Amino acid sequence: MDSNEHINITRVASAHSVQTSLEAIRTGDAGLSKRRANMLSRVPNIGEYASFQRESVTIEDLAYLSAQEGDEFALLRSKSSDIIFHGDKYGCTFTNDL
Fold first, then answer.
1. Paired sense of beta strands 81-86 and 49-53, if any
2. CA neighbor of 52 nearest in space, from 71, 70, 74, 32
3. Does the model's pTM come out above 0.70?
4. pLDDT above 90: percentage of residues in the chain
5. What is the spatial distance between Cα 7 and Cα 29, in angstroms, rounded to a whole number?
6. Most exposed: 7, 32, 66, 85, by fewest CB within 10 Å?
């Protein structure tokens, strides 16, 4: 096995692990980590947003929040911060300045 093949196997296993975790959250068999629960506590309602330290939020974090709430979340990244926006079950609509 060459080194590229090993990397691909690792990524597949990791993706499967994430998928399993997301499904457990969706079905109510698991909850968010303390860090992600804190993120959600700052944007608990549709239409709310909050700033976080730049590059502290990942797309994977948004997947976990979406699995927990059944809503969409958007990540906006500025020069100085990350912003999480809590959308509804259909998407994220920005009606005000963030």
1. antiparallel
2. 74
3. yes
4. 66
5. 30
6. 7
